Hints:
By secondary structure, this protein is an alpha/beta fold. It contains 13 helices and 12 strands.
Amino acid sequence: xxxxxxxxxxxxxxxxxxxxxxxxxxxxxxxxxxxxxxxxxxxxxxxxxxxxxxxxxxxxxxxxxxxxxxxxxxxxxxxxxxxxxxxxxxxxxxxxxxxxxxxxxxxxxxxxxxxxxxxxxxxxxxxxxxxxxxxxxxxxxxxxxxxxxxxxxxxxxxxxxxxxxxxxxxxxxxxxxxxxxxxxxxxxxxxxxxxxxxxxxxxxxxxxxxxxxxxxxxxxxxxxxxxxxxxxxxxxxxxxxxxxxxxxxxxxxxxxxxxxxxxxxxxxxxxxxxxxxxxxxxxxxxxxxxxxxxxxxxxxxxxxxxxxxxxxxxxxxxxxxxxxxxxxxxxxxxxxxxx
Length: 339
């Protein structure tokens, strides 16, 4: 008998993260009940339906879960989240009271998303220090072939010292992609051991040392209480002239008032794919600064990573039901540190 899977994402989500053949394979492998309402389910709707199902597949737009849900989830063995963070859906109390005692696995496809964010990060690390976007904008607006006030020489990515704030899933993919560029990589992450740093081939340093030594810094810290405004005036002033700062993590990681003051000096170049608030107000001074590149939270976009979401979600279901270890299973011991 096939395991029963309750699939609650909408059709638009399905089309975004599942190739047709991947979705069809899931439906062949399992007894799948699909959300055909065209709307995201509420907590009450998914609670009404979950009894008798072995798995729940969720995605962007899925609701939070509660004690009543788990009270009715009599056969649940895995929640396969075909998106990134699961913390909107679960809290520590639910983890301790239901998930751990019942051995319910929670899968997150954040590694699949990380591929796209890592690719974007490396793109920023190449383009931003070379100031391609500024040169293009100036040439388009003035016709000036090479604006003399925009620096065209400097330490670019090849041979640079790159600082990564947090050894997150994204950061670890960035480390892999940076290998051909002969960079020295510094990492600040209080949860990373010295042995893990050695395995990754990076140097573990304190936050201020990272900012002082790096030619370019990329932020990958999660949005949790401990990281709110963790990058402030003290760290920004440690950046050398001409340094690049990239944020594809969360806007809340940077003190935006301090960042604005530093950017207004013209001393550093910055790429922000995320901001606080998001989007920035129309009258935000950041919008007027040539040395600040703002993109509309698109670092995670891209077919490669998005379709890997569907592929890894199906594999998680297969592995769980076969009694194998689920790659991408949430580590409940580190739940508080999750994004």
